[in-house]
## 1
Amino acid sequence: MERAGAEAAVEVLMQNYFGKVTHGGFYWRAVRANIREVDNLAGQLLVASPRLVDPNFVRTVVVMLNHDGQGAMGVVINRPSELPVADYLPEWVDTLASPEVVFYGGPVEQTVAIGLRESADAGANSTPIPGLGMVNFGEDQADLTDGRVRVFAGYAGWGPGQLEEEIEEESWITVPAFARDVFSSVPGDLWAEVLSRQGGQIALLASMPLDPELN
């Protein structure tokens, strides 16, 4: 489906699926209510809104690790692959969070492995999310790592102003991030779970079908 056609289908679904609750632009008011200031979104989650039809990001949840004047960088945390980490980093198997596979981190540099770990350490390898650290597979040792580890191939990146434009277009909903989100044992449910826990109007989006034609 072409992008314009997909977006049109989503607009129709909003009116049909939610019925009267969408009257007067309810859906987009709900999304706007969850758009935070874009000065610095490091430490937040980006949750793809139903309007976002780019196949790289449909129904994704992205944990934001950096955001400044030079751009933004994050990792998609709810797209597991079928590739066992053991085939690539066998020494890290005992530390892995379930499922023990490589996750699709984003469309940029997919040959690069990025590791995130549970950690109470606020040192050089910490992230903006409390309890979440980064792993340097070239230097860190698996037997010295505390907490679970998740391995990602690639990352999501935005140039200066690009993420701000996408948020202005209401492609993303921004919500607080928790370390436990990264290590969910049911990543396929994470998109709906994150929306549901926001409560109120935005939680209704969690029950929206993926395919507008299924309505």
## 2
Amino acid sequence: MFKFYIKFFAVIAAILLISSCSFAEDSKDFYAKEIDDVIFSRIKGKSYKDNCTVPLSELRYLHVLHVGFDGETHEGEIICNVSIADDLLDIFKKLYDAKYQIEKIKLVDEYNADDESSMRDNNSSCFNFRFISHTTKVSKHGRGVAIDINTLYNPCVKVVDGQYFIEPATAGDYIDRTKDFPHKIDENDLCYKLFTEHGFEWGGHWKSLKDYQHFEK
């Protein structure tokens, strides 16, 4: 009986050790932290504009890993609202484990906070302060509670004053969602499933416009 207990506790100890190692690995590669001076210097005057009404205390910097279109592991950076930080860490960890391909996850500040440039480069990003056009209401991206994924392959399509717009403008090959092509987000896509499981709304379901890259909470 004594030998049984020794073996039993040895197994438990091994399980705990494996679990702690896995947690340590995850916390090294997938983590959130407050916006420090170094990060703020990268976003000040770009995504965090001079008229930004969102306190830095409401934002978090996330470090994640992702599998690129080359099949290799890459480091990604996201700035988001603290309210969705845990959601995003869990989603991106599961996407990475499933080898789901996301070409780029860079701060939009690397594109001087220009959304069109970021989307044309197929960059996936979250926070970029701005007001909704012709209002004083902060947009979902402006609050850091919306994120866009594989943007070139999943454009935003809308009609404004009778004029047809595609964002990014270079995504014309991907507006027909009846076609089958790589990196398309639809209801069968893992990205869609994970985000909606976490309570996010998908722009592909909207009636007034279609924003296939967009998830918000």
